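Narrative progress, year one. The postdoctoral researcher (J.K.) led the effort to move from monomer predictions toward full complexes, under supervision of the PI. The following entry was the first complex the group processed end to end, covering 528 residues in total.
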Amino acid sequence: MTYRDTAIEVAGLTTSYGDHAVLRGIDLTVPTGTVYALLGPNGAGKTTMVRILSTLVAADEGRARIAGFDVRTQPDRVRRCIGVTGQFSAIDELLTGRENLRLMADLAHLDAREAGARVADLLVRFGLADAAGRRAATYSGGMRRRLDLAMTLVSRPRVIFLDEPTSGLDPRSRRDLWQVVRELLAGGVTIFLTTQYLEEADQLADTVGLLDGGRLVATGTPAELKLRAGGETLDDVFLALTGHAVATPADQDERQAAR
Amino acid sequence: MTTITYATRDSVTMLRRNLKHLVRYPSLTLTIIGMPVVFLLLFVYVFGGTMGAGLPGGTGSAEGDVSRADYLHYVTPAILVMTVASVANSTAIVVAKDATEGIIDRFRTMPIARSAPVTGHVLAAMAQTVLAVVVVLALALALGYRAGASVAGWAGAAGVIVLTGWAVTWLSVALGLASGSVEAASNAPLPLILLPFLSSGFVPTGSMPTALAWVAEHQPFTPVIETLRACLEGRDPGSDVWWAIGWCILTAVTCCWWAGRLFGRVRAV
């Protein structure tokens, strides 16, 4: 396979925080134009994986290439190809929605006319046109997430990382976001997303990697995985392969309470 | 475009963002201007009559507007330097707020100049410093302060203000990055606000107990205030100017290095 076909290539990725091993030898390949969903419970290492692939932190060992560029030795080349929407909102609350997008356009070095057009287009596409002049601090959770994603898209990234993009969103906002992901795919981008929601992986992903305790315990299409574990849902698969559920109801309650 | 023009462009973009923040969150700027204004009024109208009388060459009498005017003349340079120092509070808060929010990670995954976010903060803080000093100086002039400075003296005074502002800004950027939370950042620059009191700014060091006088004579704010005072009075500041420049450069360079190290480690949430 050439780099043109492979958007993300990871080999032997290992990292730990102090004594705690977070990732223990991850290998994966994501073909260009597909969605890879990393599915796992809290603490499985999903966010660490995104932070390494998006050049925020260095892994202890192993290699990762994005669009053919090494994340460790060519971080600037990688940054020119990627867009990242993290788990926590990365918007500027004192700026309006339009100004947030314009900030991204300026940092992407778009010229004034191009920047204006791109910002206007994204505001409409993400249903933020009416709220464009309001400060982001006044936005609802769903609007923030949409603005966050729109900001990621300003520079037209070829590889997009979405770290738990729909956690904390109501079902309708979640479905809206899924629709956006599908539209992006039609445009030829590659998406790497992490999620705790089995339905989300099932709905969106071409390939699902089940991450548990820093190891990929299974990889395949949702259908393959269901077939392999003889289960009806990815939930069954996860349970069959790891001996525990992705997220227990208690976990979910805890996260709700924390919020 | 070359790397340098991109770095400049990114820094200007960040400056614009930070200036918008200052305009939309005016309480920070009002606080940093308000504090020296209150001190100026307090020191001139409440303490000024007595303090002025006690100055060397003062009337010795606690009465009259003469000693108050003398003290206004004496204390204005100190209040101006205090204004510069008070900007530290706002800068540390703004930097810490930025560093603890998700947007810093977004910037770090973008192909922008690494230094741009910090440069934007430094430039915005310098703009804030100039604004605050102009407002406080205007008030001092309105109260009757008259500088005897020539054009060169005013230029020197402006230079001292900018150089001190530059040092204070780098110190507060580093404190903001080091503090890890907005709450901690709002307290970190407190010594910087109090230190000008332990200098020759408010009373001559000769009137202090020996040990305290020694501290006052050897801490950075004394040469800075003395240089500013000399410039505004149209005198030659002598060796004070070199001490002032030395302290400012030492502080700025050390803190710039420190801030750079901290910025590499900053991690949102």
